[in-house]
Amino acid sequence: MFITLVAFISSCVSRSSYFDEIILQNLKQYEDIAEIYDYRKIKEYNEGNKHIVVYQYKVKLKTDKVLKEAQTNILDILKKSPFLVELSTRCGINFITGKQPCIIEDKAIFKKTANGWILK
Fold first, then answer.
1. Which domain holds residue 71?
2. What is the CATH number of the domain that holds 92?
C-alpha cells in the first residue's frame, strides 16, 4: 500500500512539473523582448480529458530591444506582435514604456491524446 501511494504521489509530482516545464518553455520564446520572472502555479485541476493549470508570472518589457528589433528584424517582431498587443492591453502604458513590470495571471489547457498531453 505504501509503495503504491509513493508511486502515485511521484507520478503526480512529475506530471505537474512536466506541465510547468511546457508553460515556461512557451514563455521563453519572448525572452528577447520581455523579462519574464517569478513564475508560480496558482492551481491545477482536471476537467474530463483536460488538465488545466492556472499560473502567474511577472513580465517587464525590454523597450530598447523591441525598438532595435523593430528596425532590424521586422518579421521577428511581427511574429511576437500578438503577445505585445495582449500585454499592452492587459498592463497599460507604464508597462509599454518599460517603467513597471506587470503581473499576468493566465491559464494553460492541456488535452490528453493517444500520444500524451498537448498544450491547446
1. 2-119
2. 3.10.450
Distance CA 79, CA 81 (A): 6
Give the chain as a 3 state SS string.
CHHHHHHHHHHHHHHHHHHHHHHHHHHHCCCCCEEEEEEEEEEEEEECCEEEEEEEEEEEECHHHHHHHHHHCHHHHHHHHHHHHHHHHHHCHHHHCCCCCEEEEEEEEEEEECCEEEEC
Q: Greater confidence, 53 or 7?
A: 53
Q: What are the tens digits of pLDDT across the range 19-67?
A: 999 999 999 988 888 899 999 999 999 999 999 999 999 999 888 877 7
pLDDT, tens digit (0-9, with 9 covering 90-100), for 92-115: 877 877 778 899 999 999 999 998
Give the residue carrying C-alpha cell 519574464.
36
Q: Indicate the number of domains in the chain.
A: 1
